[in-house]
Amino acid sequence: MALGARLELRQGQGLVITPQLQQAIKLLQLSNLELEAFVEGELERNPLLARDEPEAEAEPRAAEEAPPEAAADAEARADLDAAHDEASPGERATGDSEQPAADAGGSIDWSRAGSGGSFDGLPEDLESALTREQTLAEHLHDQLAVCGLGPAESAVASVLIDGIDEGGYLRLDLVEAAEQLGCTTELVERVLQTVQGFEPTGVGARDLRECLMLQLKEHNRFDPAMDALLDNLPLLARRDFAALKKACGVDDEDLREMIAELKALTPRPGAAFGGEPAHPVTPDVFVREGAAGLWHVELNSETLPRLLVDQRYHARVSAAARSDQEKTFVSDCMAQASWLVKSLDQRAKTILKVSSEIVRQQDAFLAYGVEHLRPLNLKTVADAIGMHESTVSRVTSNKYIGTPRGVFEMKFFFTSAIQSSEGGAAHSAESVRHRIRQLIDAEGNERDVHSDDRIVELLKEAGVDIARRTVAKYREAMRIPSSVERRRLLKDAV
């Protein structure tokens, strides 16, 4: 068979994800805080984007009365050059950024002076920065500065302090730390003993036993009996006092005193110090009850960035553009700005559409409570509104709904189904967990404690077909002890 080269034309179809489509998909799954940060970045990069604030813009716009033609052209050229230089900093000349240190009168302007001659590095909210609570790491580093360690020991201690979490526990392997620092493990262990002597007592411990031991040693209460008690903390958690007395070699009175001493200790010594500020959850959607049992769904306008394309500014810089590079830059900025505004509008409509369908599906929960939460999955919502499951999944990620019953993440309303024992409608997993907790909370004394098998029987009587292992799984997920432990707790309480 002869081999030869030839040209052929073939027609085919393929799905290509454009950068604009990738941006629209990315915007869907951003939370309101992440979206705000993204929009701020776009406002800095794109000179044609502006916030939709008509009241704030009224005065500056009013001052822009039609200037002379030559002045307007020169101003547009200057704006275009500044915007183009900002977009491509690599092309900027380094010598053009110098600022004079003094004014025409020869005096220096100290109005913005601070440490290093400038206030630019200071935070805007200076009062909150000065009144911020000291973190645990800062507190430990302050003690390290005055403890008198040598340079090598101070470097090791600094690494160990950075490996302590907010609770005060060391989350760092000493052998790996020694290899990383290029020193012996004995040196790291010796420095760790020094760090464990810092305040608060118990900081730098590697587990709960060591944390409690450090605090007991400070109070001179660490003896062989207490050592045995710390070795058998699981027995204490199960309240197996008979086994504890045998392990510690003490009687009832001594054991009660030892347990009282343990309760007076602090299992998380670092919890008293400040940490990263917690950001409050802001609902993306509000649900309000209307007339005749209807529910009104509306977007939270405070979480929606309002952007517009500055058409007047675009007209000015377009007219002032001379080279092909400048025209391409203006054209790209215009296309990106228009697409971003459209993407934000589409994102808002999609969130409203998905949340409205969720509210329609879960109206019984809003009206009567968690026991009436229906089983719901992404496919049900996607089919109802004509979207793909992946789109619904992105929309419901990191989004919150404010309802009369509280603020819930959208994912909360998607629960698996548990079949009814009577052949009726299925029950949601969340409502079944709520029923299990109700049954356990109603236990008044040790004779009323329900085993997992008994809970299965009670749920089947209520029309819920559930297996015993599922009850045990839900109970453990809610951190509810077993029936044996609950019976012992109720007996001790009496």
Short structural summary:
By secondary structure, this protein is mainly alpha-helical.
Characteristic key phrases:
494 residues, mainly alpha, Arc Repressor Mutant, subunit A, two-stranded antiparallel sheet, 23 helices, 52% helix
What does this structure look like?
With 494 residues, this protein is mostly helical. Among the domains are: 136-272, no CATH class; 285-413, no CATH class; 417-493, Homeodomain-like (Arc Repressor Mutant, subunit A), CATH 1.10.10. Helix content is 52%, strand content 6%. It contains 23 helices and 8 strands. The protein has helices spanning 19-28, 32-45, 54-63, 69-87, 126-130, 136-145, 151-162, 174-181, 185-195, 208-218, 224-231, 233-237, 241-248, 252-263, 311-320, 324-361, 363-368, 378-385, 389-396, 429-441, 452-461, 468-477, 483-493, and strands at 49-51, 285-289, 295-299, 307-309, 400-403, 406-409, 417-418, 427-428. The strands form 3 sheets. The protein has a 4-stranded mixed sheet, covered by helices on one side. Strands 1-4 form a two-stranded antiparallel sheet. Strands 7-8 form a two-stranded antiparallel ribbon. Helix 4 packs across helix 15 and helix 18 (378-385) packs across helix 19. The longest helix is centred in the C-terminal third of the chain and has 38 residues, at 324-361. The radius of gyration is 33 Å and the shape is extended. Residues 56-72 and 87-124 have low confidence and may be disordered.
